[in-house]
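[Q] Does anyone have a clean structure-token version of this?
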Amino acid sequence: MFSVFYTTTLCIILQQALAAGRINYEKKLREQLFLHRQDYEATRRPVEYRNQTLVTHLGLHILHLTEVNPQAGYILIYGWLQLSWNDNSFKWNKDNFGGITNLRIPSNLIWIPDITVYNHASAESAANFGQTLALLNNNGTILWVPPVTIKFKCSFHELQSFPFDEHLCYVKFGSWTFDGFTMDLQLTTNDSNDVLQDYKTDHHEWKLAAVGAIRSEKIYSCCPEPYPDITYHLQLKRESPFYMVTLLLPSIYIMIFILIGFWLPPMAGEKLTLSVFNMISLVILMLHLHFVLEGSFYHIPGIVLFLCLSLIFVVLSLILSMFTCNMTQTQQNSTRSNFLLRLLNGRLGWILCLPQIKECLESDLLTSNEAHDNMEIPEGDCEKNPIDDWITLATAIDRIFFLPYAIVL
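[A] Here you go.
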């Protein structure tokens, strides 16, 4: 029993002694790196020679797709940035400091590369990096991983396939003052799995489908030096059942009603009512799309073209029905057109499934006795009624409208 107590007490004492020793070594190391050095400046590039190039590695890890605003043309993401470079002034021998291989220090005590977002959407998002501790290794390598909130511009003008559209956006990082000869910016990794390792798909409308990265250099007209940059390409895909309920399903219902309206008789009051209902519904849907998209596109979306085409067909059908009603009331005594009779009773009428127009609606009997004997109708003695002609013509035009509308759908 005494031996167990003695062993436990000894282990605790040794552990506290080692911890105290490490604290003393860490304090000694901090004093050597910062307090006893008067020549180190946090604003000076950490190189031994003026013409020496400092290699800096950059990597982006996206955690959240915070906001996507197609109308204003920007994206807001949250994640963390990985920056690493080498500073030989922070090398030490770990054997002289109790085996300490790394040290965590405030980032404002050391030189930090002036990385910024080139295509930032506002001045506040130009360098919105969090102030976190930097990790110093005994070989001189410095690792700084600050949290970042990046608000960058993105074009959402290609909306032909709305609401199933996809967009390719990019965020570009680079040094604001250093050229490629003084600071060589390199990509840590371009593996999309590494960039999206901790990504949370929590956005209600947009999905981050893929991410890629590329390093490039650009020479400006003012300066002969190359300026390297790291560009991350983000492929966004719209996924929202909201538009399925509020746009697609009503469009399908209206499409069915329009097709039904083309087969209703032109003189039927239900046809006029249905046409007016379809026209008002289409206008409401187009107004809803106006508030959703707010004109933020170069090319007209397909659903807008569909609604415009449907509105044109509905208005033409409504005008035709009103014209037919007017003609049946005002043209009762007009003569019938032989050309119209041959056209509607011919192959066109058979294709459109039109009823055959009778050439004579009533027959004059020669005499009551002759009518009783043979019921023969002499030519030119039948009454002519053009009302059926106008109704059949309106029906033919309605069904002609039906064919291209159904084909377009």
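[Q] Thanks! Anything notable?
[A] Confidence is low (pLDDT under 50) at residues 16-22, 360-384.
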